[in-house]
Amino acid sequence: MKIKVFLLAAGCLIGTSGIYAQKGVDNGTPFGSGEDSVRCITNISLFTPYAKNGNFKDALEFWKIAYDECPGATKDIYLYGVRIVGWLIDNETDPAKKASLINDLMAVYDKRIKYFGKEPRYEKDWIMGRKAQDYVQRLGEDADPKLLYGWLKEAIDEYGNNTDVLAVSYYMYASNRLLIADQAHKETYIQDYLKASAILDAQIAAAKEEKELAAIQPVKSGLDNGFANSGAADCETLQGLYADKVEQNKDNLPYLKETITLLRRMRCNEIEAYFAAATYAHRLEPTAESAMGLAKKAVRDKDYNKAIALFEEAANMETDNTVKAEDYYLIAMLSFEQDSYSKARQYCLKAIETNPSYGSPYLLIGKMYAATAGNIYPDDAVLRKTVYYAAVDKFERARQIDPTTGEEAGKLISTYRSHFPSTEEIFMHPDLDKGKSITIGGWIGERTTVR
Q1: Domain boundaries defined on the chain
Q2: Which residues pair with 290 in a beta bridge?
Q3: C-alpha angle with apex 134: 132 to 138, nearest 5 degrees?
Q4: What is the C-alpha to C-alpha distance for residues 271 and 285, in angstroms, rounded to an integer?
Q5: Which residue among 102, 245, 412, 414 is least packed, with the fewest CB closer than 10 Å?
Q6: By CB neighbour count within 10 A (0-12 exposed, 13-18 middle, 19+ buried), where does 447 fall?
Q7: Is 0.85 topped by the overall pTM?
Q8: Could you report the per-residue pLDDT of 366-391, keeping only the tens digit for each?
């Protein structure tokens, strides 16, 4: 009834305003003017209820008129337009016609960008992500990666860290397809990964709700896994790609930082290109990252004192507690290599204090206790075995706070429990009773319990 009344009113208006008619697509207004304005409003009013109910067949004619003549009138033209054209594609059996309709579908997205590409939350990058998704889903392996890459690169270059997650995902999909087709794309692919990864890292850091993180983190994991399995990620290849470039950019701090970050992410932080980039970057602007790189180089060169000093420098500048704790742990390991057990334990405890869920320092302390048992009690074989109580305490603590250490901790616990004093040995040792608290001597100086 409402539509009939509206059409009656529109008919009256048409009779008086035809001379001023002009389509919205021609004069740049949402609805056009005069008779064409009424024609636009009428067709929008006609296609919308059909489309809402999934009756795309009856919606098609009215939608097409609105789409062609007043494309800036309402976003509904595009919200329902992709469904209407999608319905046409699904019902087309002729391959050539279907391909033409897919082009028409892409044009719907392009026109939405032109007329509604600045709306908050649904800007050009958001629309481009959905366009890419529809394109790939419709064409599968026949999708043109160069075309897809061009669309999404434009969005990423424009929106940077604010780029829609779906657009970033399909950007890397397209880049990976280009790499598969042509290995000459490898360096560009690596740079694409670094850029996309940085965008998602920034969005994860800025996320305020679990819902946001739930949308971003799986995409980030997919990107990382895709890169790791791409064949572009082996250290030998990265050394070949970056060795000369680092030398050419030794005064270009942003480039050096970017290179250091990439090589570290790919666990290629023991190749010459990484060491060179860290050295040049540290001269220009010392950072935790560059100090870490120089420390690793010193380790390779077996200059442990220099390495310890650089790891300490890195830790002092580091703001991420997980990384800072690792710096302290590496100092502990080097101190252990130099038989400096007290110092090694000191840095293990600093690592644990910095990152309370870090289990590896506990494993190292336990290993040091076990390794020095003979030095603690050289003349008493039974007391020597009690040192393993303290060692196992540390292994158990590691397993308790850090599941990633579980397998190694379990093996160590099994090994050293088998070396505990036997019941007979405890019975013959008057100062030992099961359940009794004792202090392990020497540099250990720690309380434990007789088992």
Answers
A1: 1-116, 140-232
A2: none
A3: 120
A4: 21
A5: 414
A6: exposed
A7: no
A8: 999 999 999 999 999 999 999 999 99
